[in-house]
Specification:
With 40 residues, the protein is mainly α. The protein has one domain. It contains two helices and no strands. The two termini are 24 Å apart. Keywords: Membrane, Transmembrane, Transmembrane helix.
């Protein structure tokens, strides 16, 4: 996902906080997991 995709998602989901938080949680979790796998 690019930054533009994130902005588009944010604008589309702006009325729905749980979905937005879910999207961010998935992105952050994926980044943390890939970083952990690369380091470990």
């Amino acid at each position: 996902m690019t930054r533009d995709d994130l902005i588009r998602e944010y604008k589309a989901q702006s009325g729905s906080w749980p979905a937005l938080v879910g999207v961010y949680a998935v992105i952050v979790g994926a980044m943390a997991l890939s970083g952990y796998l690369m380091v470990g």
